[in-house]
Protein backbone atom coordinates (compact mmCIF):
# COMPACT_ATOMS: atom_id res chain seq x y z
CA UNK A 1 0.00 0.00 0.00
CA UNK A 2 1.49 3.33 -1.09
CA UNK A 3 2.19 5.85 1.65
CA UNK A 4 0.70 9.31 1.16
CA UNK A 5 1.89 12.54 2.71
CA UNK A 6 -0.72 14.23 4.89
CA UNK A 7 -2.81 16.74 2.91
CA UNK A 8 -1.44 15.62 -0.51
CA UNK A 9 -2.89 13.36 -3.17
CA UNK A 10 -0.48 11.25 -5.21
CA UNK A 11 -1.57 11.22 -8.89
CA UNK A 12 -1.03 7.93 -10.70
CA UNK A 13 -2.40 8.88 -14.18
CA UNK A 14 0.72 9.79 -16.22
CA UNK A 15 -1.29 11.07 -19.23
CA UNK A 16 -3.26 13.57 -17.16
CA UNK A 17 -0.52 14.36 -14.62
CA UNK A 18 2.97 14.13 -16.17
CA UNK A 19 4.76 16.00 -13.36
CA UNK A 20 7.84 14.12 -12.28
CA UNK A 21 7.74 11.67 -15.22
CA UNK A 22 10.97 10.70 -16.98
CA UNK A 23 12.03 12.51 -20.20
CA UNK A 24 11.42 9.36 -22.23
CA UNK A 25 7.90 9.06 -20.82
CA UNK A 26 7.17 12.76 -21.52
CA UNK A 27 8.25 12.34 -25.14
CA UNK A 28 6.12 9.23 -25.53
CA UNK A 29 3.18 11.05 -23.92
CA UNK A 30 3.56 14.04 -26.29
CA UNK A 31 3.45 11.90 -29.42
CA UNK A 32 0.58 9.80 -28.02
CA UNK A 33 -1.55 12.91 -27.49
CA UNK A 34 -0.61 14.16 -30.94
CA UNK A 35 -1.55 10.84 -32.56
CA UNK A 36 -4.87 10.79 -30.69
CA UNK A 37 -5.69 14.27 -31.99
CA UNK A 38 -4.87 13.24 -35.55
CA UNK A 39 -6.72 9.93 -35.54
CA UNK A 40 -9.62 10.53 -33.13
CA UNK A 41 -10.04 14.27 -32.54
CA UNK A 42 -11.26 14.91 -28.98
CA UNK A 43 -9.78 11.75 -27.46
CA UNK A 44 -6.65 13.58 -26.24
CA UNK A 45 -8.82 16.04 -24.33
CA UNK A 46 -10.94 13.24 -22.92
CA UNK A 47 -7.84 11.43 -21.58
CA UNK A 48 -5.63 14.32 -20.53
CA UNK A 49 -7.58 17.55 -20.58
CA UNK A 50 -11.07 19.01 -20.47
CA UNK A 51 -13.32 15.96 -20.56
CA UNK A 52 -16.40 18.01 -21.46
CA UNK A 53 -14.62 19.43 -24.50
CA UNK A 54 -13.35 15.95 -25.34
CA UNK A 55 -16.83 14.41 -25.24
CA UNK A 56 -18.24 17.11 -27.51
CA UNK A 57 -15.35 16.81 -29.94
CA UNK A 58 -15.69 13.03 -30.00
CA UNK A 59 -19.41 13.35 -30.79
CA UNK A 60 -18.58 15.62 -33.70
CA UNK A 61 -15.84 13.22 -34.84
CA UNK A 62 -18.18 10.23 -34.80
CA UNK A 63 -20.81 12.23 -36.70
CA UNK A 64 -18.23 13.36 -39.26
CA UNK A 65 -16.98 9.81 -39.81
CA UNK A 66 -20.56 8.60 -40.18
CA UNK A 67 -21.30 11.30 -42.76
CA UNK A 68 -18.10 10.47 -44.61
CA UNK A 69 -19.03 6.79 -44.66
CA UNK A 70 -22.50 7.66 -45.92
CA UNK A 71 -20.99 9.86 -48.65
CA UNK A 72 -18.72 7.00 -49.77
CA UNK A 73 -21.67 4.61 -49.93
CA UNK A 74 -23.73 7.16 -51.90
CA UNK A 75 -20.80 7.75 -54.28
CA UNK A 76 -20.47 4.01 -54.89
CA UNK A 77 -24.20 3.53 -55.41
CA UNK A 78 -25.05 6.82 -57.14
CA UNK A 79 -22.00 8.81 -58.22
CA UNK A 80 -24.18 11.50 -59.78
CA UNK A 81 -25.80 12.29 -56.42
CA UNK A 82 -22.38 12.68 -54.79
CA UNK A 83 -21.19 14.99 -57.58
CA UNK A 84 -24.39 17.02 -57.25
CA UNK A 85 -23.58 17.67 -53.59
CA UNK A 86 -20.34 19.33 -54.67
CA UNK A 87 -21.76 21.27 -57.63
CA UNK A 88 -25.26 22.22 -56.45
CA UNK A 89 -25.30 25.91 -55.38
CA UNK A 90 -27.09 25.31 -52.05
CA UNK A 91 -25.61 21.94 -51.12
CA UNK A 92 -22.09 23.11 -51.96
CA UNK A 93 -22.56 26.15 -49.70
CA UNK A 94 -23.61 23.87 -46.84
CA UNK A 95 -20.59 21.65 -47.54
CA UNK A 96 -18.24 24.66 -47.46
CA UNK A 97 -19.70 25.75 -44.11
CA UNK A 98 -19.38 22.25 -42.62
CA UNK A 99 -15.80 21.77 -43.80
CA UNK A 100 -14.81 25.23 -42.56
CA UNK A 101 -16.31 24.55 -39.13
CA UNK A 102 -14.56 21.17 -38.91
CA UNK A 103 -11.25 22.73 -39.96
CA UNK A 104 -11.51 25.43 -37.30
CA UNK A 105 -12.59 22.97 -34.62
CA UNK A 106 -9.76 20.58 -35.43
CA UNK A 107 -7.24 23.44 -35.32
CA UNK A 108 -8.56 24.43 -31.89
CA UNK A 109 -8.07 20.85 -30.67
CA UNK A 110 -4.47 20.86 -31.94
CA UNK A 111 -3.76 24.09 -30.09
CA UNK A 112 -5.29 22.65 -26.92
CA UNK A 113 -3.23 19.48 -27.41
CA UNK A 114 -0.10 21.62 -27.56
CA UNK A 115 -1.09 23.01 -24.15
CA UNK A 116 -1.67 19.50 -22.80
CA UNK A 117 1.74 18.32 -24.00
CA UNK A 118 3.44 20.78 -21.61
CA UNK A 119 6.31 21.63 -23.92
CA UNK A 120 8.45 23.25 -21.14
CA UNK A 121 8.61 19.84 -19.38
CA UNK A 122 10.15 18.16 -22.44
CA UNK A 123 13.84 17.82 -23.09
CA UNK A 124 15.20 20.85 -24.92
CA UNK A 125 16.15 18.87 -28.02
CA UNK A 126 12.65 17.35 -28.24
CA UNK A 127 10.73 20.60 -27.89
CA UNK A 128 11.15 21.82 -31.48
CA UNK A 129 10.62 18.29 -32.82
CA UNK A 130 7.25 17.96 -31.07
CA UNK A 131 6.13 21.46 -32.02
CA UNK A 132 7.08 20.97 -35.68
CA UNK A 133 5.36 17.57 -35.74
CA UNK A 134 2.20 19.13 -34.32
CA UNK A 135 2.21 21.99 -36.82
CA UNK A 136 2.72 19.59 -39.73
CA UNK A 137 -0.08 17.36 -38.48
CA UNK A 138 -2.40 20.36 -38.13
CA UNK A 139 -1.61 21.54 -41.68
CA UNK A 140 -2.13 18.03 -43.08
CA UNK A 141 -5.50 17.56 -41.39
CA UNK A 142 -7.20 20.82 -40.46
CA UNK A 143 -5.42 22.58 -43.32
CA UNK A 144 -6.62 19.97 -45.81
CA UNK A 145 -10.22 20.47 -44.72
CA UNK A 146 -9.83 24.22 -45.04
CA UNK A 147 -8.30 23.86 -48.50
CA UNK A 148 -11.10 21.53 -49.58
CA UNK A 149 -13.62 24.12 -48.41
CA UNK A 150 -11.73 26.77 -50.36
CA UNK A 151 -11.69 24.70 -53.56
CA UNK A 152 -15.39 23.93 -53.30
CA UNK A 153 -16.01 27.64 -52.73
CA UNK A 154 -13.95 28.55 -55.80
CA UNK A 155 -15.82 25.95 -57.84
CA UNK A 156 -19.15 27.16 -56.51
CA UNK A 157 -18.33 30.72 -57.52
CA UNK A 158 -17.19 29.63 -61.00
CA UNK A 159 -20.27 27.44 -61.49
CA UNK A 160 -22.50 30.33 -60.45
CA UNK A 161 -20.77 32.61 -62.97
CA UNK A 162 -20.92 30.14 -65.85
CA UNK A 163 -24.11 28.15 -65.47
CA UNK A 164 -27.69 29.26 -65.12
CA UNK A 165 -30.22 28.74 -62.38
CA UNK A 166 -33.06 27.62 -64.59
CA UNK A 167 -35.07 24.41 -64.45
CA UNK A 168 -33.46 21.04 -65.05
CA UNK A 169 -33.78 19.55 -68.52
CA UNK A 170 -35.08 16.10 -69.30
CA UNK A 171 -33.59 13.74 -71.91
CA UNK A 172 -35.30 13.59 -75.30
CA UNK A 173 -35.52 10.10 -76.78
CA UNK A 174 -33.05 8.97 -74.12
CA UNK A 175 -30.39 11.61 -74.89
CA UNK A 176 -29.16 15.02 -73.83
CA UNK A 177 -28.19 17.28 -76.72
CA UNK A 178 -25.93 20.29 -76.14
CA UNK A 179 -24.82 22.93 -78.63
CA UNK A 180 -21.20 24.05 -78.17
CA UNK A 181 -20.39 27.33 -79.89
CA UNK A 182 -16.91 28.74 -80.32
CA UNK A 183 -17.53 32.47 -80.13
CA UNK A 184 -15.06 34.83 -81.81
CA UNK A 185 -15.63 38.47 -80.82
CA UNK A 186 -12.48 40.08 -82.20
CA UNK A 187 -11.94 43.83 -82.48
CA UNK A 188 -12.61 43.67 -86.23
CA UNK A 189 -15.99 41.96 -85.79
CA UNK A 190 -19.49 43.17 -85.01
CA UNK A 191 -20.79 41.11 -82.11
CA UNK A 192 -19.79 37.59 -81.21
CA UNK A 193 -19.79 35.32 -84.22
CA UNK A 194 -19.81 31.58 -83.46
CA UNK A 195 -17.32 30.26 -86.02
CA UNK A 196 -17.46 26.79 -84.49
CA UNK A 197 -20.76 24.93 -84.03
CA UNK A 198 -20.82 21.42 -82.60
CA UNK A 199 -23.57 19.33 -81.07
CA UNK A 200 -22.62 16.96 -78.27
CA UNK A 201 -25.32 14.29 -78.01
CA UNK A 202 -25.03 12.10 -74.89
CA UNK A 203 -26.87 8.88 -74.09
CA UNK A 204 -28.65 9.55 -70.78
CA UNK A 205 -27.83 6.09 -69.42
CA UNK A 206 -24.41 5.07 -70.74
CA UNK A 207 -22.82 8.46 -71.47
CA UNK A 208 -21.92 7.38 -75.01
CA UNK A 209 -21.40 10.47 -77.11
CA UNK A 210 -21.83 11.65 -80.69
CA UNK A 211 -20.14 14.82 -82.00
CA UNK A 212 -21.92 16.53 -84.89
CA UNK A 213 -20.15 19.53 -86.45
CA UNK A 214 -21.92 22.17 -88.53
CA UNK A 215 -19.90 24.39 -90.87
CA UNK A 216 -20.11 28.08 -90.09
CA UNK A 217 -21.08 28.77 -93.73
CA UNK A 218 -24.16 26.53 -93.80
CA UNK A 219 -26.95 28.31 -95.70
CA UNK A 220 -30.74 28.16 -95.40
CA UNK A 221 -30.65 26.84 -91.82
CA UNK A 222 -34.09 25.69 -90.69
CA UNK A 223 -35.53 27.08 -87.45
CA UNK A 224 -37.23 24.51 -85.21
CA UNK A 225 -41.00 24.40 -84.77
CA UNK A 226 -42.04 27.02 -82.23
CA UNK A 227 -38.99 29.24 -82.82
CA UNK A 228 -39.92 32.95 -82.92
CA UNK A 229 -37.49 33.32 -85.85
CA UNK A 230 -39.82 31.26 -88.03
CA UNK A 231 -41.98 34.38 -88.13
CA UNK A 232 -39.10 36.23 -89.78
CA UNK A 233 -37.74 33.37 -91.92
CA UNK A 234 -40.56 30.84 -92.42
CA UNK A 235 -38.68 29.14 -95.28
CA UNK A 236 -35.38 29.02 -93.45
CA UNK A 237 -32.53 31.48 -93.03
CA UNK A 238 -32.38 32.18 -96.77
CA UNK A 239 -31.59 35.85 -97.33
CA UNK A 240 -28.66 35.09 -99.66
CA UNK A 241 -24.93 34.56 -99.23
CA UNK A 242 -24.87 36.71 -96.10
CA UNK A 243 -27.30 34.41 -94.29
CA UNK A 244 -24.82 31.87 -92.97
CA UNK A 245 -25.75 30.01 -89.83
CA UNK A 246 -23.06 31.75 -87.78
CA UNK A 247 -24.64 35.15 -88.56
CA UNK A 248 -27.87 34.32 -86.69
CA UNK A 249 -26.40 35.17 -83.29
CA UNK A 250 -25.43 38.73 -84.26
CA UNK A 251 -28.61 39.44 -86.26
CA UNK A 252 -30.94 38.31 -83.49
CA UNK A 253 -29.07 40.21 -80.77
CA UNK A 254 -29.07 43.34 -82.98
CA UNK A 255 -32.54 43.27 -84.57
CA UNK A 256 -34.83 40.68 -82.99
CA UNK A 257 -34.25 40.71 -79.24
CA UNK A 258 -37.92 41.58 -78.76
CA UNK A 259 -38.83 38.09 -80.02
CA UNK A 260 -37.14 36.55 -76.96
CA UNK A 261 -38.43 38.39 -73.87
CA UNK A 262 -36.75 37.26 -70.66
CA UNK A 263 -34.01 35.30 -72.48
CA UNK A 264 -30.48 36.21 -71.36
CA UNK A 265 -28.84 35.62 -74.75
CA UNK A 266 -31.43 35.69 -77.57
CA UNK A 267 -28.76 35.21 -80.26
CA UNK A 268 -27.44 32.02 -78.66
CA UNK A 269 -30.98 30.75 -78.12
CA UNK A 270 -31.95 31.42 -81.75
CA UNK A 271 -28.79 29.68 -82.99
CA UNK A 272 -29.70 26.69 -80.84
CA UNK A 273 -33.16 26.64 -82.46
CA UNK A 274 -31.61 26.84 -85.93
CA UNK A 275 -29.31 23.90 -85.18
CA UNK A 276 -32.29 21.93 -83.83
CA UNK A 277 -34.31 22.49 -87.01
CA UNK A 278 -31.37 21.84 -89.29
CA UNK A 279 -30.38 18.53 -87.69
CA UNK A 280 -33.88 17.37 -86.78
CA UNK A 281 -32.59 16.95 -83.23
CA UNK A 282 -33.95 18.67 -80.14
CA UNK A 283 -31.14 20.77 -78.64
CA UNK A 284 -31.81 21.42 -74.95
CA UNK A 285 -28.97 23.67 -73.86
CA UNK A 286 -25.95 25.54 -75.14
CA UNK A 287 -22.39 26.28 -74.09
CA UNK A 288 -20.43 29.21 -75.53
CA UNK A 289 -16.64 29.01 -75.45
CA UNK A 290 -14.95 32.34 -76.10
CA UNK A 291 -12.12 31.54 -78.50
CA UNK A 292 -10.21 34.61 -77.39
CA UNK A 293 -9.92 33.20 -73.87
CA UNK A 294 -9.76 29.54 -74.87
CA UNK A 295 -5.98 29.46 -74.58
CA UNK A 296 -6.26 30.36 -70.88
CA UNK A 297 -8.29 27.22 -70.28
CA UNK A 298 -5.83 25.04 -72.21
CA UNK A 299 -2.93 26.52 -70.23
CA UNK A 300 -4.83 25.84 -67.01
CA UNK A 301 -5.10 22.19 -68.08
CA UNK A 302 -1.37 22.09 -68.71
CA UNK A 303 -1.77 21.88 -72.50
CA UNK A 304 -3.34 19.19 -74.70
CA UNK A 305 -1.58 16.24 -76.31
CA UNK A 306 -2.36 15.41 -79.93
CA UNK A 307 -0.74 13.72 -82.89
CA UNK A 308 -0.93 16.32 -85.64
CA UNK A 309 -1.18 14.95 -89.15
CA UNK A 310 0.12 17.91 -91.13
CA UNK A 311 1.68 21.38 -90.99
CA UNK A 312 -0.75 24.04 -89.71
CA UNK A 313 0.00 27.77 -90.15
CA UNK A 314 -0.31 30.34 -87.38
CA UNK A 315 -1.80 33.01 -89.61
CA UNK A 316 -0.34 36.46 -89.88
CA UNK A 317 -2.30 39.71 -89.87
CA UNK A 318 -5.49 39.73 -91.96
CA UNK A 319 -5.03 41.86 -95.09
CA UNK A 320 -8.54 41.89 -96.56
CA UNK A 321 -12.04 40.47 -96.24
CA UNK A 322 -11.31 37.60 -98.62
CA UNK A 323 -9.00 35.48 -96.48
CA UNK A 324 -5.71 37.13 -97.37
CA UNK A 325 -3.05 37.11 -94.63
CA UNK A 326 0.46 38.38 -94.11
CA UNK A 327 3.41 36.04 -93.56
CA UNK A 328 2.48 33.29 -91.06
CA UNK A 329 3.78 33.92 -87.56
CA UNK A 330 4.83 30.30 -87.30
CA UNK A 331 3.89 26.70 -88.07
CA UNK A 332 2.57 23.87 -85.91
CA UNK A 333 4.57 20.82 -86.94
CA UNK A 334 3.13 17.33 -87.49
CA UNK A 335 3.72 14.53 -85.00
CA UNK A 336 3.04 13.91 -81.31
CA UNK A 337 3.26 17.01 -79.18
CA UNK A 338 1.74 18.91 -76.30
CA UNK A 339 0.10 22.16 -77.42
CA UNK A 340 -0.08 25.09 -75.03
CA UNK A 341 -3.09 27.42 -75.12
CA UNK A 342 -1.77 29.68 -77.86
CA UNK A 343 -0.86 26.86 -80.22
CA UNK A 344 -3.98 24.80 -79.41
CA UNK A 345 -6.14 27.83 -80.25
CA UNK A 346 -4.42 28.28 -83.61
CA UNK A 347 -4.47 24.56 -84.28
CA UNK A 348 -8.24 24.62 -83.87
CA UNK A 349 -8.99 27.85 -85.72
CA UNK A 350 -6.48 27.98 -88.62
CA UNK A 351 -7.94 27.39 -92.08
CA UNK A 352 -5.34 29.12 -94.23
CA UNK A 353 -4.14 26.82 -97.06
CA UNK A 354 -6.74 24.27 -95.94
CA UNK A 355 -10.50 23.86 -95.76
CA UNK A 356 -13.12 24.58 -93.13
CA UNK A 357 -13.54 20.82 -92.83
CA UNK A 358 -9.89 20.29 -91.97
CA UNK A 359 -10.40 22.89 -89.25
CA UNK A 360 -13.55 21.16 -88.00
CA UNK A 361 -11.66 17.86 -87.78
CA UNK A 362 -8.87 19.52 -85.79
CA UNK A 363 -11.42 21.14 -83.47
CA UNK A 364 -13.03 17.76 -82.80
CA UNK A 365 -9.58 16.37 -82.08
CA UNK A 366 -8.80 19.15 -79.58
CA UNK A 367 -12.16 18.64 -77.88
CA UNK A 368 -11.54 14.92 -77.47
CA UNK A 369 -7.97 15.51 -76.25
CA UNK A 370 -9.33 17.84 -73.55
CA UNK A 371 -11.87 15.22 -72.47
CA UNK A 372 -9.13 12.59 -72.30
CA UNK A 373 -7.07 14.79 -69.99
CA UNK A 374 -9.91 15.71 -67.63
CA UNK A 375 -9.09 13.15 -64.96
CA UNK A 376 -9.57 13.77 -61.21
CA UNK A 377 -5.84 14.30 -60.61
CA UNK A 378 -5.54 16.96 -63.30
CA UNK A 379 -8.67 18.73 -62.09
CA UNK A 380 -7.67 18.73 -58.41
CA UNK A 381 -4.09 19.87 -58.98
CA UNK A 382 -5.11 22.66 -61.36
CA UNK A 383 -8.61 23.32 -60.07
CA UNK A 384 -8.22 27.00 -59.20
CA UNK A 385 -6.63 27.86 -62.56
CA UNK A 386 -9.28 25.89 -64.44
CA UNK A 387 -12.10 27.56 -62.49
CA UNK A 388 -10.70 31.05 -63.00
CA UNK A 389 -10.16 30.44 -66.71
CA UNK A 390 -13.64 28.96 -67.03
CA UNK A 391 -15.36 32.11 -65.77
CA UNK A 392 -13.63 34.08 -68.56
CA UNK A 393 -14.13 31.50 -71.27
CA UNK A 394 -17.49 29.75 -70.85
CA UNK A 395 -21.13 30.79 -70.76
CA UNK A 396 -24.03 28.37 -70.60
CA UNK A 397 -27.74 28.08 -69.88
CA UNK A 398 -27.27 24.62 -68.33
CA UNK A 399 -28.76 24.52 -64.84
CA UNK A 400 -26.06 24.52 -62.17
CA UNK A 401 -28.20 22.17 -60.10
CA UNK A 402 -27.96 19.51 -62.83
CA UNK A 403 -24.25 19.85 -63.47
CA UNK A 404 -23.29 16.94 -61.19
CA UNK A 405 -25.37 14.44 -63.14
CA UNK A 406 -23.82 15.61 -66.41
CA UNK A 407 -20.31 15.26 -64.99
CA UNK A 408 -21.24 11.72 -63.96
CA UNK A 409 -22.42 10.98 -67.51
CA UNK A 410 -19.15 12.31 -68.91
CA UNK A 411 -17.21 9.98 -66.62
CA UNK A 412 -19.39 7.04 -67.67
CA UNK A 413 -18.81 7.73 -71.34
CA UNK A 414 -15.06 8.21 -71.07
CA UNK A 415 -13.28 5.54 -73.09
CA UNK A 416 -16.42 4.64 -75.05
CA UNK A 417 -16.46 5.04 -78.85
CA UNK A 418 -17.47 8.52 -80.00
CA UNK A 419 -19.67 8.90 -83.07
CA UNK A 420 -18.65 11.67 -85.46
CA UNK A 421 -20.43 13.50 -88.23
CA UNK A 422 -19.82 16.67 -90.25
CA UNK A 423 -22.46 18.46 -92.32
CA UNK A 424 -19.91 18.58 -95.11
CA UNK A 425 -16.81 16.56 -96.06
CA UNK A 426 -16.14 13.73 -95.39
CA UNK A 427 -19.83 12.86 -94.82
CA UNK A 428 -21.14 15.06 -97.65
CA UNK A 429 -19.52 16.84 -100.59
CA UNK A 430 -17.97 20.30 -100.36
CA UNK A 431 -20.98 22.07 -101.94
CA UNK A 432 -23.44 20.53 -99.50
CA UNK A 433 -23.44 23.41 -96.93
CA UNK A 434 -24.41 25.82 -99.72
CA UNK A 435 -27.19 23.57 -101.03
CA UNK A 436 -28.11 21.40 -98.02
CA UNK A 437 -30.50 18.48 -98.26
CA UNK A 438 -32.17 18.45 -94.86
CA UNK A 439 -33.74 15.02 -95.31
CA UNK A 440 -30.25 13.63 -95.94
CA UNK A 441 -28.94 15.46 -92.86
CA UNK A 442 -31.71 14.04 -90.67
CA UNK A 443 -31.10 10.51 -91.93
CA UNK A 444 -27.36 10.76 -91.25
CA UNK A 445 -27.98 12.22 -87.78
CA UNK A 446 -30.32 9.31 -86.98
CA UNK A 447 -27.62 6.88 -88.10
CA UNK A 448 -24.92 8.45 -85.93
CA UNK A 449 -27.22 8.72 -82.91
CA UNK A 450 -28.29 5.07 -83.25
CA UNK A 451 -24.63 4.00 -83.28
CA UNK A 452 -23.94 6.05 -80.15
CA UNK A 453 -26.84 4.73 -78.08
CA UNK A 454 -26.69 2.06 -75.40
CA UNK A 455 -23.58 0.57 -73.79
CA UNK A 456 -20.41 -0.73 -75.39
CA UNK A 457 -21.72 -4.32 -75.38
CA UNK A 458 -25.16 -3.29 -76.65
CA UNK A 459 -25.72 -4.43 -80.25
CA UNK A 460 -27.26 -1.04 -81.00
CA UNK A 461 -23.85 0.47 -80.61
CA UNK A 462 -22.59 -1.08 -83.83
CA UNK A 463 -25.81 -1.12 -85.80
CA UNK A 464 -24.81 1.49 -88.33
CA UNK A 465 -21.88 2.65 -90.33
CA UNK A 466 -21.17 5.71 -88.23
CA UNK A 467 -17.54 6.60 -87.71
CA UNK A 468 -16.85 5.39 -84.16
CA UNK A 469 -13.37 4.09 -83.44
CA UNK A 470 -11.46 3.97 -80.20
CA UNK A 471 -7.80 3.72 -79.22
CA UNK A 472 -6.20 3.24 -75.82
CA UNK A 473 -5.89 6.99 -75.51
CA UNK A 474 -9.44 7.78 -76.57
CA UNK A 475 -11.18 8.33 -79.87
CA UNK A 476 -8.96 8.34 -82.89
CA UNK A 477 -11.69 9.25 -85.34
CA UNK A 478 -12.49 7.83 -88.74
CA UNK A 479 -9.96 6.07 -90.94
CA UNK A 480 -7.44 5.94 -88.12
CA UNK A 481 -7.50 9.66 -87.37
CA UNK A 482 -9.76 12.67 -87.18
CA UNK A 483 -9.98 14.28 -90.61
CA UNK A 484 -9.11 13.30 -94.16
CA UNK A 485 -6.46 10.63 -94.65
CA UNK A 486 -3.28 11.85 -96.36
CA UNK A 487 -2.31 10.36 -99.73
CA UNK A 488 1.00 8.62 -100.27
CA UNK A 489 4.03 10.85 -100.69
CA UNK A 490 5.06 11.54 -104.26
CA UNK A 491 8.55 13.00 -103.88
CA UNK A 492 9.54 12.89 -107.54
CA UNK A 493 6.89 15.18 -109.06
CA UNK A 494 8.58 17.95 -111.12
CA UNK A 495 7.48 21.25 -109.66
CA UNK A 496 8.49 23.22 -112.72
CA UNK A 497 6.05 21.24 -114.83
CA UNK A 498 3.39 21.67 -112.21
CA UNK A 499 3.82 25.45 -112.22
CA UNK A 500 3.58 25.45 -115.98
CA UNK A 501 0.25 23.68 -115.69
CA UNK A 502 1.40 20.46 -117.33
CA UNK A 503 1.18 18.39 -114.16
CA UNK A 504 -1.10 19.25 -111.20
CA UNK A 505 0.42 19.19 -107.74
CA UNK A 506 -1.36 16.48 -105.70
CA UNK A 507 -2.76 17.63 -102.35
CA UNK A 508 -0.85 16.75 -99.19
CA UNK A 509 -0.16 16.92 -96.43
CA UNK A 510 3.53 16.27 -97.00
CA UNK A 511 5.10 16.11 -93.59
CA UNK A 512 8.75 15.30 -94.32
CA UNK A 513 9.38 15.60 -98.06
CA UNK A 514 7.44 17.80 -100.48
CA UNK A 515 6.18 16.71 -103.92
CA UNK A 516 9.35 18.24 -105.38
CA UNK A 517 11.59 15.99 -103.28
CA UNK A 518 12.77 18.84 -101.04
CA UNK A 519 12.53 18.30 -97.24
CA UNK A 520 9.67 20.17 -95.58
CA UNK A 521 10.59 22.47 -92.69
CA UNK A 522 9.07 25.59 -91.20
CA UNK A 523 11.80 27.65 -92.84
CA UNK A 524 11.02 26.17 -96.27
CA UNK A 525 7.30 26.86 -95.82
CA UNK A 526 8.12 30.48 -94.95
CA UNK A 527 10.28 30.70 -98.08
CA UNK A 528 7.49 29.34 -100.28
CA UNK A 529 5.10 31.92 -98.83
CA UNK A 530 7.47 34.87 -99.19
CA UNK A 531 8.33 33.94 -102.78
CA UNK A 532 4.70 33.49 -103.79
CA UNK A 533 4.86 29.73 -104.42
CA UNK A 534 1.36 29.34 -103.03
CA UNK A 535 0.38 26.43 -105.27
CA UNK A 536 3.16 24.27 -103.93
CA UNK A 537 2.64 25.54 -100.38
CA UNK A 538 -1.08 24.76 -100.52
CA UNK A 539 -0.36 21.28 -101.88
CA UNK A 540 2.10 20.52 -99.07
CA UNK A 541 -0.17 21.49 -96.18
CA UNK A 542 -3.58 20.68 -97.71
CA UNK A 543 -5.70 18.15 -95.87
CA UNK A 544 -4.01 18.84 -92.55
CA UNK A 545 -7.18 17.91 -90.69
CA UNK A 546 -5.76 14.50 -89.84
CA UNK A 547 -5.32 14.45 -86.08
CA UNK A 548 -5.42 11.91 -83.25
CA UNK A 549 -6.11 12.95 -79.64
CA UNK A 550 -3.68 11.45 -77.13
TrEMBL record:
Compositional bias (Low complexity): 461-473
TM helices/strands, residue ranges: 57-78, 90-117, 129-152
Sequence ranges of Basic and acidic residues compositional bias: 10-19
Disordered as annotated region, ranges: 1-22, 452-476
UniProtKB keywords: Membrane, Transmembrane, Transmembrane helix
Pfam families according to UniProt: LytR_cpsA_psr
Cell envelope-related transcriptional attenuator domain segment(s): 193-374
Recorded superkingdom: Bacteria
Family: Belongs to the LytR/CpsA/Psr (LCP) family.
Annotated protein name in UniProt: LCP family protein
The organism of origin for this protein: Sinomonas halotolerans
Amino acid sequence: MALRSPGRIQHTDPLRHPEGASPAHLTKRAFTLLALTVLVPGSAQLMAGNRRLGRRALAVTVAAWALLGLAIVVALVNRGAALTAVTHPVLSLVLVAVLTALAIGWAVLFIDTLRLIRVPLLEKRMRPVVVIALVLAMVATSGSLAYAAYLIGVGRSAIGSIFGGGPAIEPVDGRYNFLVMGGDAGEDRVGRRPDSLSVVSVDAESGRTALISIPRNLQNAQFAEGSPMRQVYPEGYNCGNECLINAINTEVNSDHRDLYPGVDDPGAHATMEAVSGTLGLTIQAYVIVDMGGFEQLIDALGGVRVKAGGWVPISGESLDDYGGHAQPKGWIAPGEQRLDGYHALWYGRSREFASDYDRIARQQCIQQAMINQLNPTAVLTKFQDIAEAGTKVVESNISSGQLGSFVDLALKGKGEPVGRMVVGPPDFDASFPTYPDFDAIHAKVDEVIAASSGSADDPKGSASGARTTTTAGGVSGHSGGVGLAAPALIPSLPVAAARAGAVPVPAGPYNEVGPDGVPVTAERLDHLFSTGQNELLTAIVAGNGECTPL
